[in-house]
Amino acid sequence: MLDNSKRKQRWPALCALALMGLLGAGAAAAAPDIESWQTQRGAKVLFVQAADLPMIDVRVVFAAGSARDADKPGVASLTANMLGEGAGGLDADSIAERVEGVGAELSTGAERDMAWASMRSLTEPTALETAVDTLVKVLAEPEFPAEDFARVRQNRLTALRLAEQDPGSVGSKALYRAVFGDHPYGSDPSGTPESVGAMRREDLQAFHRRYYTPANATIAIVGALDRPQAERLAERLTAGLPEGPAAPALPPVDDLASGGAQQIAFPSSQTHVYAGQPGMRRGDPDYFPLYVGNHILGGSGLVSLLMHEVREKRGLSYSAYSYFAPMAERGPMIMGLQTQNARAEEASAVMLDTLERFIDEGPSADELDAAVKNITGGFPLKIASNSKVVQYLAMIGFYGLPLDYLDRFSERVSAVTREEIRDAYRRRVHPERLAVVQVGRAAGEDAAAEAAPEPSGSGAPLSDAAAQPAPGGGGEG
Asked: Is the pLDDT of residue 344 over 80?
């Protein structure tokens, strides 16, 4: 996300009219009608006309996430963070003032697969022109000012040091390394102290020239425009981008050859337990059986099997969860919980036993029925505003999903059978090959430090991707 340390840079919320519109945009249960085409310079465009509100949402995504960092971990994230620090002759304050002055929003960010820039504006001509012009400058003419780069880099180094004091962050990074090894997904998007410390603004400029190209871009547009207006907007957004090819495909993710356990000593009264292995990719033929199955296993909060076994029956943890994070190649399948140090082995065993039993037996008819009703009943809310729809469009376009993905989502969920879930889990999830990471004191190391489990941010899932059929910020959900 945009760096916030020097000034308020998460450019403010929309004016009252736009905010009221978002709150009331509620929505029809029917999926939006998606149109798609390519710009003259090769960018993919997905467009939904939404004339009810005088607003427009735009999201431009590039295959420019941390999986493209190569030998400079953190360069993708720093590049995205620096886009709004100065562009097209405007400094960061001028950019913020321009956007704020017309009640618009502008943000940038990057995760493993993609980097993005998002804009929201009213369609009043002056407001829209100012917002679009600013977005064009941010995308095509970033200046990466030396003074601002030094500040952003120092803030990142500080954040990396702080992350070393958070057991959840330590565990998350260790798990990704254990699951993906040398694959680009194994590298943390934030980089390392060594790589970030050695980074130069020229590295960001080179990364932008290589990956922020029309051929590497997907543009999602939702709002009160007609097709010709959307076409002109898409052409304008890509006109000034550097020339260059699309990013090459990422290497496939290999299965783990065997399981492994890693104990990371950490001076805490609680142990964070993570288990994972390669899961599924976007567009995976097993996506819906695995997605619905995970909802039952650990993706549905208090009513999931993991919560029942770990929390309700044994009181081992306030939270236990599982999720798949599908990406361009196979993202992780992750399970996790947080518990007292002395009970970490017990809690871990219960978590893994629950997984094995689910693979062997599959869900009951009642569990499947409840899951389908919960997922399909809540789905209309996931497409209840332009801001939500534009993220789905970006995901559909970026990953090459069918244009009827939203229209058929509930149908495909409802069609999943118990046998399909059991079959998919038996073929795709292998408990004997799980990478397991525990972060905390070993049992008995410091009994005086033990305390009852406390709900905290660090005990939450590494991602909420399991519960979301859509993206998360461009991200991996």
From this structure: yes
> Do the domains 16-239 and 260-467 sit in the same CATH topology, yes or no?
yes
446 φ, ψ (degrees, to nearest 5): -150, 75
CA-based Rg of the chain, rounded to a whole angstrom? Answer: 23
pLDDT of residue 444: 58
Residues across the chain = 477
Answer left, alpha or beta for residue 444, where phi above 0 means left and psi between -120 and 50 means alpha: left
In degrees and rounded to multiples of 5, residue 263 shows phi and psi of -105, 120
Architecture of domain 260-467: 2-Layer Sandwich (3.30)
CATH of 16-239, one of 1.10.287.470, 1.10.490.10, 3.30.830.10, 3.40.50.300: 3.30.830.10
Q: Positive or negative CA dihedral for 417, 418, 419, 423?
A: positive
Where are the chain's structural domains? 16-239, 260-467
% of the chain residues with pLDDT over 70: 87
Tokens for 277? 């292995």
The 10 Å Cβ neighbour count of residue 68 is 25
Q: Which amino acid is at 236?
A: R
Encode pLDDT of 208-230 as tens digits: 999 999 999 999 999 999 999 99
d(CA 137, CA 442): 53
Largest CA distance in the chain: 69
Q: Is the pLDDT of residue 23 over 70?
A: no
Cβ atoms of 468 and 310 closer than 8 Å: no
Contact call for residues 322 and 294 (beta carbons, < 8 A): yes
Q: For residues 383 and 367, what is the distance between their CA atoms, to the nearest angstrom?
A: 25
Angle at 349 between CA 348 and CA 354, to 5 degrees: 100
Residue type, 201: R
Task: Annotate 195-219 with DSSP letters as a single string.
Answer: HHHH--HHHHHHHHHHHSSGGGEEE
Helix axes 386-399, 405-415, angle to 10 degrees: 80
Instruction: Find tokens 């003032």 and name the residue.
Output: 97
- Predicted TM-score (pTM) above 0.85: yes
pLDDT tens, residue by residue, 409-440: 999 999 999 999 999 999 999 999 999 999 99
Residues with Cβ within 8 Å of residue 296, at least 6 apart in sequence:
304, 305, 358, 363, 367, 368, 371, 421
Kindly indicate the confidence band of residue 461, based on its pLDDT and cuts at 50, 70 and 90: very low
